[in-house]
Write a structure and sequence with these properties.
Distance between the termini: 37 Å
Number of domains: 1
Number of strands: 6
Largest sheet: 4 strands, antiparallel
Number of helices: 8
Order of helices and strands: EEEEHHHHHEEHHH
Radius of gyration: 20 Å
Shape: globular
């Protein structure tokens, strides 16, 4: 993902869907005639806000409150953003030559997995401080992650980025901007694939929510779902981050590897937990009326 502060203008179409050419600009508006506010930033902000709204709705089931959400959520957002930047920088070290380059997030470069890792560590530390269950809190907040990602991907659309390889399928996207060399290419709209995949996951997990068998099952389901989908979508991407720089083959794509590991680890963990619960070797989730914890 990137934020093109100078303004990226794109000509987009979806001919297979009967949508002709139209123009988009990565800059939504200019503030005080000087500061450019990008659509990407607005979509990311909207995703974060709606994530907080959703968590505030869910958190009441556990006997927690808005104060706890803010105590844990605010530092998680801060460290999550730092994590997304560090993830990108570490995979593109040859492009950064000064400390300013590293912190100039407005010039582009974010990696979602870095945010998930840094945010997850922050949540773990904060739940320990607050003396509440990390897995219960993860079950509460994880659906909001795919919701926020589904919304944030539309920032990529406005930037005319995060697209896939050339294709002739019915939902192909025609794209013409500086990233395509100002040639019109018909590509996989991978931003759309991931947005729809995440939205579907969000809806399904909320239908399942009351049927979870143990604390942490929603956490495992969300990351297995996201990892599985991202793994295949990333195979189509034309702008992936690579484990070994300048070695652009599918099995060197970082998000393919991370997505695969997330899917395998979470699916295996969940399967083992459910088998042990069924065999009576572990206790399942307590009834909802008994899950409330004090906020400290």
């Amino acid at each position: 993902m990137s934020l093109l502060a100078t303004g990226q203008r794109s000509v987009i179409s979806f001919p297979g869907l009967g949508i002709g050419e139209f123009r988009v600009n990565s800059v939504a508006f200019t503030l005080f005639g000087r500061f450019e506010i990008a659509w990407y930033a607005l979509f990311i902000t909207l995703g974060i806000v709606l994530a907080f709204v959703y968590i505030n709705y869910r958190i009441k089931e556990f006997g927690w409150n808005l104060d706890l959400l803010l105590d844990i959520g605010l530092p998680t957002v801060v460290f999550g953003v730092i994590g997304t930047r560090l993830y990108y920088v570490l995979t593109k070290l040859d492009e950064f030559h000064s400390f300013y380059d590293v912190i100039a997030i407005w010039n582009g470069g974010l990696g979602i997995y870095g945010g998930l890792i840094a945010g997850g560590i922050t949540v773990f530390v904060m739940t320990r401080i607050k003396k509440i269950s990390f897995m219960k809190f993860a079950d509460c907040v994880c659906p909001s992650l795919v919701l926020a990602q589904a919304i944030g991907r539309w920032g990529n659309f406005m930037n005319g980025e995060a697209f896939g390889s050339e294709t002739s399928i019915f939902c192909r996207m025609g794209l013409n901007n500086s990233l395509t060399g100002y040639d019109t290419l018909y590509v996989h709209p991978t931003f759309l694939y991931e947005s729809l995949w995440n939205l579907l996951g969000f809806l399904l997990i909320n239908l399942f929510y009351k049927h979870r068998k143990y604390d942490g099952q929603v956490f495992h389901l969300i990351f297995a779902w996201y990892g599985f989908g991202r793994m295949f979508i990333e195979l189509l991407r034309a702008d992936s981050l690579y484990l070994i720089p300048h070695h652009e083959v599918w099995y060197n794509k970082i998000s393919v590897l991370v997505g695969f590991l997330a899917f395998v680890i979470c699916t295996t963990w969940m399967t083992v937990k459910l088998i042990r619960i069924k065999q009576g070797k572990e206790e399942g989730r307590r009834p909802a009326a008994n899950t409330k914890e004090k906020t400290k």
